Description:
3 domains, two-stranded antiparallel ribbon
Amino acid sequence: MSHVKQAHGLSERRACQLIGAERTSVRYRSHRPDDGSIRSRLCDLASERRRFGYRRLGWMLRREGAVVNLKKVYRLYREEGLTVRRRRGRKRATGARAPLPLPQAANQRWSLDFMADQLANGRRFRILTMVDDFTRECLATVADTSLPGVRVVAELERIVERRGRPAAIVSDNGTEFTGRAVLAWAADQAIAWHTIQPGKPVQNAFIEAFNGRLRDECLNEHWFSSMAEARTIIEAWRIDYNTVRPHDRLGRVPPAVFAMTGDPTMLRGGALRLTEGFAPHPVAPPSPQGSNQEQTQPTPG
């Protein structure tokens, strides 16, 4: 209304006639009382009782002496964004939520995740991937049609026996990682198990980056005719990734070579200066019988 009056130099009466509005509507000013105190108390109650809806919160406001009906409570409840989200599915372990610091040495933090692929006959299988977040070494790529929590524990025990226990393990909220078998094993081993927030894969960026390389350089490049062939090819790629493939974040040397130095200060100008002055040698693909066994690291030559 004020814009019309200023633009055309009209009085309020003429402007109302022009736009077809009643002068009483234009002059109306709300006499609604200030709801600041009720709004503030509603927010306090909602923070204390996080699973209470607007009806129960309104009853508590009335118990404290506030004169308010449920319609007003509902309006304030929606305006403040206090709607309770409905929980779906079974109860799951949440793990630690505090952000984890970046690892400064090997075995400080491992990352776990699952991938999926299929054989030539259409049968699907899964791959359990494990990465040391500091050295970027792939600790295991376990491929099988079924990988329950008990199997995850067995694979972790095999790696811990060879490599030692990590201080922490990061994973998503998959049922295999949040089941009783895994959590009981982590508690028994005194390993902090950290689960990322649902829908936030960036919080597990190390393993997600590795999975992208595995998908692009191995899974999408081969057509697996059998489960045994898939295990052999994936394990051969894992060994090549650890011992031959240059890693840009490690000064363009393979993770196994970087792990042998044990000193991140050796990075100079984007390239790692090796004291022995050698390059890793290619490794032959492992046999199907020994596809899950760790290969020896390259020796100076």
